[in-house]
Amino acid sequence: MMTQRMGPFRRCHATINPKVYMDNCIYDLCVSDGLHAMLCQALEAYADSCQEEGVTIEDWRTSARCPLPCPKNSNYTTCGTSCPTTCNPAVMPPTCDPKACVEACECQEGFVLDLNECIPQDECGCVFEGLLRGPREVFWGDTTCTKRCRCDTELRRPLCQRSRCRHGEECRVEGGIQDCYPKSYGTCAAVGATHYETFDGGSFTFQGSCVYRLAGVCEKSQELVDFQVLVQNGHEEDALSSIALVMVKVYGKTIVVKRDHPGKVMVGSVDVSSCSSTPLPSMGGGQEAVVETDFGLTVTYDWQSQVLVSVPSTYSNALCGLCGNYNGNTEDEMMMMVKNDSVTSTPGDHWKVMDIPGCMELSKVECPQRGQQPEEASQMGCGLLHQADGPFGACHAHVDAAKYFQSCVHDSCLFPHREEVACPIIARYAAACRAAGVSIGMWRTEDFCSELGPAAGSGLHKWSGMSKGSPRPWGGEAERWESHPASCLVPSPLVQWPGTLLR
Ligand SMILES: [Ca+2]
Predict the structure, then answer these.
(1) Could you tell me the distance, in angstroms and rounded to a whole number, from the CA of residue 236 to the centre of ligand 1?
(2) pTM of the full predicted structure?
(3) How many A from CA of 327 to the centre of ligand 1?
């Protein structure tokens, strides 16, 4: 084929004598026992030499049965360009000659070369200040978070516009990623049947067994993802009992955790906790349901008596509910609840969202037999908080125990025959001590506030499936649902997994 006068190499004969290549070919085939690959190699060597000299050769691979293996989405051609379209046209090989004709695998229509692969053009990234950015990637174009950029796949370059961090956020690097992060987080707690600690640090007692808004967005804004956390206390024989139900409403979904169903976290009729495959490190030994969202809301419920809501500082002054408005001022928590026409309104009047048959509210929380109670309550366990030589002794100088003791006595008085009402309040003080960096002694025993409550064995369930693209007004991300790294697999049909939707 090399020497054929009418063959594919005929134009090359005058430039490069095929004889040497022919002799080498015969020798190679001879020693390799006629291996076909040797023939292809020899023909390719001659073809390459011809093309290097600028001679156009014709297709020899078909008749010699030496196909050039081409990667996916590309076709073989004897005369292709040495300057193929790539994702990044600015970076061309220095040898590229636009007029040269080379044997090549050319990307099909709509595909471009990227690292020896032909990929769809719209999957190309962008180069920004020497760094490669993924297609449609949204990133900060400066170190102070004032320029937001997006890699445009059609233009194959980033488009930037002025932006800034939201109220309550600051620009910093976390885990190697520069972004706007909340300056701080606010935490609110509902403990036992009657105690509430607001985001601003206020506390009050309120008893009602209807469904109430614990926290939720009241000052709606495009920049904040709307959510609501609702709670309901249980009631048994005309008496209140601790939190029986926690509901988180976000992204059009309602997540329900019930005391009567320890270990379960329901989204509609689907229990999403049962899919937890890897047990999470237990936090403080408790058994808790943790609902986390991508915008920083965390709701924790121990299936017994304590609900914690944590929100990033972006939500300051935008919330309302029993947890308060999170504006940094403790004084106005109750004022928000006072309606213009009624000075005597109660938290229940204001934040009740649903009546449950038989649900009730006690406007005044008073212990009927105040006076003789503290002593009795001390015997029932509250005294543990005060004992100088008790498990909390080391904490007294750091966190005032008086507030917790009062709450404890209060609840012990309200529920005189239920020793366990003291447990969540003591646990709350224990948590406050730990948060202040004080190590406390063992206070739970087998007979008193035993760790093994109704949720025994259920472990800690963390479900962080609720997530959506960045709510920033800039960029197309808000339209796209994203899965979030989740320790729990969310079963279909509600959510496809592994997948990207929660529609
Ligand atoms: Ca406030």
Answers:
(1) 33
(2) 0.64
(3) 5
